[in-house]
Design brief:
binds ligand BES, single chain, 509 residues, alpha/beta, binds manganese (II) ion, six-stranded mixed beta sheet, 14 helices, binds zinc ion
């Protein structure tokens, strides 16, 4: 397995386009623009751009592509691809990230060995440069990891990002931002690789081994707790879910403890690590069940974000906790009606064994606090209900206090992981009432993702806590110009960037 930084770094220049030393130049093009919008470009194409715009062969609609040769021999690049940028939008960062990813996919298919991406438009150059590097890097992910027959997928070109006439200090800032974006997106791709891995190769033990390698190679301190340690800690929820499987559970603990960091705050990241979710005794229908191999995407996001946090040297202490198990209907599996006791001491009546994610996260959230976490974020493919509510492009965001949730929302949206806040009114808690135990693990169909989040809240110990439900966003069911079908790596960049924002956590928990 590639541990990463095998990828070459992305070059960055500020020079006239004619001087950009590359084979193929990608230029974003807005819908409203005339042929002379970019100095010298139309002439270099021998008038092809003006012709295509006039005939409406190309109009600049988002992700539309138009290829032309560079006929001007004084230019270094030999080919040109315009990529439609649509009409100007508010969120330039996300547009640029997606354009760069779409350009990356298209350039790979054109088998270019060297390519340039031209940064255009208003906005903070460093921010846009980082988003561009992220998009280009995301386009390097290969979904067909186990294909033997087909020719190998086209490799990635050596990239140059071209800034149009920027002063040296901006160029320096852009270069740093590009390195940062490259690294963050590489970590996203590592998480995608893990989520793409099927249940038979990525058992809880193998997941722990690989996540540990990814994090430790980045300088993170890693500890893997086995089933005996998990039992000693009293994690009855995690052990309960694991009972139905012949694969033993694992608990991954990641620590980023930079020398000189303040004692607090301590960010605690908790990720759901179900390596396959059959539903257990409350078994899922066969149709589409194969998708449940990615039920560890939240855990992968935490492990890979920890790598980024360490490599980028976040200034605060960060703890990552990933409980990992299969959810299987074995002969010793938990049954509806069973009572489990959590490490935090609370008892749970299991109504539906398919609501297993909240169980293992309950023990995970408790353990993160035991290790000193003061601010909590969990990430999980938790509920089908969040897909009904928000669809496939937006993750559900829950938590308390509102300032913490609002902060996470800003960080996530900036990082390109779109989220939307959902309410946690106390009334919904009625749905988790149990006659026999402290609460049940399901609240029925209404507000399914809210009751799931309220269950988690019981384990957040009153600390600032946010929960990101990525059930709809972890896996792309349809290919987009900027994203193939398959794992998306959602939340990796959000969690990593969050570790650099503690200066803004000035609210009362
Ligand atoms: N892993 C699933 C949630 C899920 C559903 C992820 C669809 C991705 C796509 C989770 O463990 C689950 O089974 N949730 C149940 C909860 C229910 C039994 C209360 C669900 O959403 O149906
Ligand atoms: Mn389930
Ligand atoms: Zn699940």
């Amino acid at each position: 397995m590639s541990l990463t930084t095998t990828a070459a770094s992305i070059n960055c220049v500020s020079s006239p386009l004619s001087a950009v030393d590359t084979d193929l130049l990608v230029v974003p093009w807005f819908e409203s623009e005339g042929p002379s919008a970019v100095d010298g470009l139309d002439a270099a194409s021998g008038g092809e751009i003006a012709r295509a715009l006039a005939s409406k062969e190309f109009s600049g609609k988002t992700f539309e592509l138009f290829a032309a040769s560079v006929t001007d021999r004084s230019w270094r690049a030999r080919r040109l691809v315009l990529i439609g940028a649509g009409s100007p939008v508010d969120d330039r960062g996300e547009l640029v990230r997606q354009l760069a990813a779409a350009a990356g996919i298209s350039v790979r298919n054109r088998r270019a060995e060297r390519a340039g991406f031209v940064l255009r438009g208003r906005g903070d150059v460093a921010e846009l440069a980082q988003a561009t590097a992220e998009g280009l890097t995301l386009s390097e992910f290969n979904v067909g990891m186990y294909k033997t027959g087909d020719p190998a997928p086209p490799g990635a070109p050596a990239w140059t990002i071209a800034l149009l006439q920027q002063p040296p200090d901006i160029l320096t800032r852009a270069r740093a931002a590009i390195d940062r974006g490259r690294l963050l997106a590489e970590c996203s791709n590592l998480a995608r690789e893990l989520a793409n891995e099927p249940g038979n190769t990525l058992t809880p033990r193998e997941f722990a081994r690989r996540a540990a390698a990814i994090a430790a190679d980045g300088g993170v301190t890693v500890e893997i707790l086995d089933e005996d340690r998990i039992a000693q800690l009293g994690m009855g929820l995690l052990l309960g879910v694991a009972r139905g499987s012949s694969e033993p559970p694992r608990l991954m603990v990641f620590r980023h403890d930079p020398p000189g960091a303040p004692a607090g705050p301590v960010l605690g990241l908790v990720g759901k690590g179900i390596t396959f979710d059959t539903g257990g005794i409350s078994i899922k229908p066969a149709d589409g069940m194969e998708r449940m191999k990615d039920d560890m995407a939240g855990g992968a996001a935490v492990a890979c974000a920890m790598r980024a946090i360490s490599l980028l040297q976040a200034p605060i202490r960060v703890i990552g906790v990933v409980p990992a198990t299969e959810n299987m209907p074995g002969g010793r599996a938990i049954k509806p009606g069973d009572i489990l006791k959590s490490a935090a001491g609370k008892t749970v009546e299991v109504i539906n064994t398919d609501a297993e994610g909240r169980l293992i996260l309950g023990d995970g959230l408790w353990y993160a606090q035991q290790l000193g976490a003061t601010h909590l974020v969990d990430v999980a493919t938790l509920t089908g209900a969040v897909v009904v509510a928000l669809g496939k492009s937006t993750s559900g965001l829950f938590g308390t206090p509102p300032e913490w949730v609002e902060h996470i929302r800003r960080v996530a949206n900036r990082a390109g992981d779109r989220v939307w806040p959902m309410p946690l009114f106390d009334d919904y808690k009625e749905q988790l009432k149990s006659e026999i135990a402290d609460f049940t693990n399901t609240g029925g169909r209404p507000a399914g993702s809210i009751t799931a989040a309220l269950f988690l809240k019981e384990f957040a110990g009153g600390r600032p806590w946010a929960h990101i439900d990525i059930a709809g966003t972890a896996w792309a069911e349809e290919a987009k110009p900027f994203m193939p079908k398959g794992p998306t790596g959602v939340a990796v960049r959000t969690l990593a960037e969050l570790a650099f924002t503690s200066g803004e956590w000035n609210f009362r928990g």
